[in-house]
Specification:
Number of helices: 3
CATH architecture: Beta Barrel
Number of strands: 6
Radius of gyration: 16 Å
Shape: globular
CATH superfamily: Protein of unknown function (DUF3299)
CATH topology: OB fold (Dihydrolipoamide Acetyltransferase, E2P)
């Protein structure tokens, strides 16, 4: 819980006022044909968004949030390869690569197969990211792909996503991303660890 609060606090404190525009056309990849289905019987590990941030980066974030404005700390979060307004790093937790996980979050479609469904999304930790606010750090966004179209009712409704996590950089016009996931299931969020 504390890790999630620290991550959210850095995002709110450190991000500049510029943001992504809903008018930006995403630059999603064309790698959907190569997707391998996720084993339906593999157990999924429950993750929170702060679990995607390496421990040393969380410590630096905590230092910034405690008011230590050391320029070398802030400089860690202003890297190259970010979209306008985005801060953060591509530092990842390598142990997550290939792991089947379950996470809560929000979907932002990048393609529309038909009205109300898509196969490529940005999976985000909070509502409105990349639309009304700057994009979260690259290691706080997951590029979500699905073999079958995923139906969604509203972008402001949270969901549970299960899938195989990969450490993979993906660049879109909306955000630079440090992780990707092939989805196994997407269901409405009803709280807790439900299945």
């Amino acid at each position: 819980m504390i890790r999630a609060m620290l991550a959210a606090a850095l995002i709110l404190i450190a991000l500049p006022a510029a943001g992504c525009s809903g008018d930006d056309a995403p630059g999603a990849s064309d790698a959907l044909a190569d997707l391998t289905p996720v084993d339906p019987d593999a157990p999924a590990e429950l993750l929170g968004w702060s679990d995607l941030i390496p421990d040393d980066e969380l410590e630096a974030m905590q230092a910034l949030n405690e008011g230590r404005r050391d320029p070398s700390l802030m400089g860690r979060f202003l890297g190259e390869g970010l979209v306008e307004g985005q801060v953060g790093t591509f530092n990842v937790v390598e142990d997550l690569d290939g792991l089947v996980v379950r996470m809560p979050g929000y979907l932002l479609p990048l393609d529309y197969v038909e009205r109300g469904s898509a196969r490529e999304f940005l999976f985000l930790p909070y509502h409105g990211a990349c639309i009304h606010t700057p994009a979260p750090p690259p290691n706080q966004i997951v590029y979500l792909r699905s073999i079958e179209p995923i139906r969604f009712n509203a972008l402001w409704e949270p969901v549970w996503v299960e899938g195989r996590m990969q450490v993979e950089r993906v660049d879109t016009e909306l955000a630079a991303i440090a992780y990707s996931m092939t989805s196994r299931s997407v269901e409405p969020y009803r709280g807790g660890r439900q299945r």
